[in-house]
Amino acid sequence: MKVHSAEFIERSAEAIGDKQLQRALGNVRAGFIGKRAKAAAALPEFEAIRDAAVGIKNHVLDHLDVYLERFEANVNAAGGHVHWARDADEGRAIILDICHKADARTVTKGKSMLTEEIELNAHLDAHGIEAVETDLGEYIIQLRGETPSHIIAPAVHLNRDQVEADFRRVHTGFDKDRILDTPESLLGEAREVLRQRYFEADVGITGANFLVAETGSTVIVTNEGNGDLTQTLPRVHIALASIEKIVPTMEDLSTILRLLARSATGQEMSVYTTISTGPRRNEDQDGPEEFHVVLLDNGRSALLGTEFQEVLRCIRCGACMNHCPVFHAVGGHAYGAVYPGPIGAVITPALAGIDQAGHLPNASTFCGRCEAVCPMRIPLPKLMRQWREKEYEKGYQPGAMRRGMSLWAFAARHPRLYRFGAIIAARILSGLGGTRHRLSRLPLASGWTDARDLPAPEGRTFMQAYAKSEKAKRP
Amino acid sequence: MSSARDIILQRIGKAIEEGRAPPRSERESGAEACLAAKENVLVPAGANVSGDEAIALFTQKAQSVQTTIRHVAAISDVAEAVSQYLTAKNLPQAIRRGSDPLLDRAGWEAQPLMEVTIGPSDGSDRVGLSVAVSAVAETGTLILSSGPDNPTTLNFLPDHHLVVLSAARIVGPLEEALRATVAEAGPAGILPRIVNLITGPSRSGDVEQQIVLGAHGPRAVHVILIGDHPTAV
Ligand code: SF4
């Protein structure tokens, strides 16, 4: 996994100055927070269900080897195949091998963060196999050569005019004068283009939100239906899943499903929850002839039994980033890692190494909102703090601080940039200070705030206040 | 061949034992007990409904996710309801359906102008007709199982998905429907290739987080509900 987290500070400064991005990020705040709050409030047992779900996942993690073996046996019994991959290299090799055996030239893909984690598309491409993303957001960023900026809303950093420009550039077969300025028209065009691709594909690759041990089933949860076409129309279906996705029974699945959509999008249930077991049966008239499940470890087993085990309860709902003031300010790409936001800050050092991502855990104000909304009650701030302690022990901090200082020095030599950065920082810090106007944690400057609160800026810089008072003096 | 497998399982076993987890023999019995119990973890009180109440809740929840519902008295009324839907939507009188024997009794003979084809969809059909195995009142969710009777492509490729549902098959909570699906899978317990839980027509919020109906799946989901009218909606 390539990680560019070292440049977090530089990227953040860029992100804060990017007007398009800032406009798009407004949709995160406006969209997700209220919807989740409403959905949670409408279910009286929501908190109790969170506790129950935590119990289920803790039980699974304590019995993980036994459940994986059971899952494997049940996949085999249904006529499917299970492959085990210790790391990204093995995962890519297994999938490529299946594609080669299927003589695949094109594969369609349902949305899968895990395929991003193992950089599958580039690998397939290097071996002459075209991978086509079919989730609308993933399709858009694939056209742009970008990576997802959010785990459930990959194109949340874009505005519709940017998408329109991309479609006009790439979809050359359409009337040049067509109107393409609404989400409806953009979706309609993508639907038309992708329809053909599903039929052309030799292999369909999806992720899995859950693996059900008692039946050997993989489960995907989507709204668009692209994952279903991806895994129904080609001759071969590959589901890539990480080892911690296990739930024991359908009852456990039901419980966690009550949390997933509510926490993610504020829906009570996503449109499609699809339970797949084995390949098509002899008498079936559609569906894939082969069903492969690739179980990926990639650093997860190393977290079991450690102080970071709790992060393996994550169901990738995205609520932690939807509620994170740092994410709101800088977006997902600034993190420079596959998983952004609070969950990314905790999981990236585990997957990529603390030397690569050691100061992502600093990309937090420790306001605690992520933990408050995390359906699986993962203590994200505590885990970030634990990484910081490790980082400190290993002596990586000075490097991060050096980079921070060099950014400051660069900005200081460019007064306009410095002033702009200061304006933004003052606004963010003012927002974070809340009504108390105190900051108990200052991002990237915990040395200051560990022992005392910093008065939050009033939202304007000295230069702005100065300019305003000068203006006021003029007749 | 199985070396990666064994190494991962060893890593896991070792890691959990170094943590606070029980030894292997207890892990086996612990997992076994959980799998055998199939215990309802926590069913919300609001989902614990049956009979008329379940029909009413299903109707309300399904409509809230833009599924439309038409009540008919018997299976023999289905063809007429289909024809009226097509007329209302300005669609040609043509549908594709699976070979589900229930649909043989839908009253097609009274609709001589309707073209009814049987089998999986190749993407050229405007309207697909399926039979749901059950439905979940709690969330307005339809449950459809794959098989020759109800090919999965019918659920996703046509623009309009019409689903026949017997009111008696509506249950309150999700776990009840899923447990019944597993029970119906027979003694070997192998589920159909696909069990679809469908909650409304397909949609996407990927452009500026505005929800638009009709993403890659159907633009409309229409339930033809056979049996008792709900007493209150
Ligand atoms: S850490 Fe919690 S809130 Fe964040 S994605 Fe995972 S489950 Fe959701």
Write the layout of secondary structure elements.
The complex is a heterodimer of chains A (475) and B (233).
Chain A: H1 8-17, H2 19-41, H3 46-62, H4 64-77, E1 81-85, H5 88-101, E2 106-109, H6 113-117, H7 120-126, E3 130-133, H8 136-144, H9 160-170, H10 183-200, E4 203-206, E5 210-212, E6 217-222, H11 226-232, E7 236-242, E8 246-247, H12 250-264, E9 272-276, E10 290-296, H13 319-322, H14 325-330, H15 341-352, H16 354-357, H17 369-373, H18 380-394, H19 397-412, H20 415-433, E11 438-439, H21 446-449, E12 454-455, H22 462-473
Parallel strand pairs in A: 1-10, 2-3, 2-4, 4-7, 5-8, 7-10
Antiparallel strand pairs in A: 5-6, 6-9, 11-12
Helix pairs in contact in A: 2-12, 3-12, 9-10, 15-18
Chain B: H1 3-18, H2 24-37, H3 51-64, E1 68-72, H4 78-88, E2 94-97, E3 115-118, E4 127-131, E5 134-136, E6 141-145, H5 153-156, E7 160-166, E8 170-171, H6 174-184, E9 194-198, E10 203-204, E11 212-213, E12 220-226
Parallel strand pairs in B: 1-12, 2-3, 2-4, 4-7, 5-8, 7-12
Antiparallel strand pairs in B: 5-6, 6-9, 10-11
How far apart the termini of chain B lie comes to 58 Å
| Most extensive chain interface and residues per partner | A-B, 106 and 87 residues
Q: In the CATH hierarchy, what is the superfamily of the largest domain in chain B? A: NagB/RpiA/CoA transferase-like
Task: Kindly report the name of the CATH homologous superfamily of the domain at 62-152 and 196-296 in chain A.
Answer: NagB/RpiA/CoA transferase-like
As for the CATH topology of the domain at 62-152 and 196-296 in chain A, it is: Rossmann fold
Which ligands, by name, code or SMILES, are bound?
iron/sulfur cluster
Low-confidence spans of chain B: pLDDT under 50, at least 5 residues?
none
Outline of chain A, from the CA principal axes? Answer: globular
CATH class descriptor of the domain at 62-152 and 196-296 in chain A: Alpha Beta
Strand content of the residues of chain A, in percent? 5-15%
- Structural class of chain B, by secondary structure, is alpha/beta
| Low-confidence segments of chain A | 404-410, 433-455
